[in-house]
Specification:
Largest sheet: none
Strand content: under 5%
Number of domains: 1
Number of strands: 0
Order of helices and strands: HHHH
Shape: flat
Helix content: over 70%
Number of helices: 4
Radius of gyration: 18 Å
């Protein structure tokens, strides 16, 4: 049993509650999702257009991970 399940990753909780089969199912479903996105690029592009992937979201994607890059490199020993 996870000691602090309320603040742990959801995959760890699913793995504990559903076992190997549940964890394998989650990984398989992610694989199906990635495979569908690779084989249907026009559907993915349509979703991006519909959800407003404009300039603001591009700037947000650039700005969010930036503060974490230096700390990740230093903590990973790189």
């Amino acid at each position: 049993m996870l000691p602090n399940a309320h603040n742990d990753f959801i995959f760890a909780i699913l793995g504990e509650e559903l076992g190997f089969v549940g964890a394998f199912l989650v990984i398989t479903l992610f694989g199906v999702l990635v495979n569908a996105a690779r084989h249907e690029p026009e559907a993915v592009a349509a979703l991006r257009r519909r959800n407003g992937q404009g300039r603001a979201s591009r700037l947000l994607r650039l700005g969010v991970p930036e503060p974490y890059r230096a700390s990740t490199r230093s903590s990973a020993g790189g």
